[in-house]
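re the bet — no i am not wrong, look at it urself. input seq straight from the record:
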Amino acid sequence: MNMIIDTYSMTPIYEQIVDSVKRMILSGELKENDILPSVRVLSRDLKISALTVKKAYDTLEEEGLTSTVHGKGTYVSAANRSLIQEERRRELEKDLEAVSEKAERYGVSREELIRMLEIITEEQTC
């Protein structure tokens, strides 16, 4: 499994693992019923504590993205893409709310803010 952990990041390592697995599911790199590396193997490969990997796997299971079969491993669950996409929408909405509040503090009108967003998204598609 291709995963890079940034030990200098302010994001906890277990969250980086969770985010990486979510990214792989969304991209199609991980599909339903694919098995994740064992806790021991991933902790060895990433040179981190097995407890950190276990916490990441527990989080993924709590979110309904994986399921663990004792003695067999942790598998990617069905219908997880929509869960991740909904979570990302919520995060994006929070970010947009913060931008909207900042624009209001700076005296930027709603129309001006919308136009800024349109310009930015047009530049990204070019």
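see?? The chain has two domains: 13-76, 81-125. told u. also The mean pLDDT is 91. so pay up
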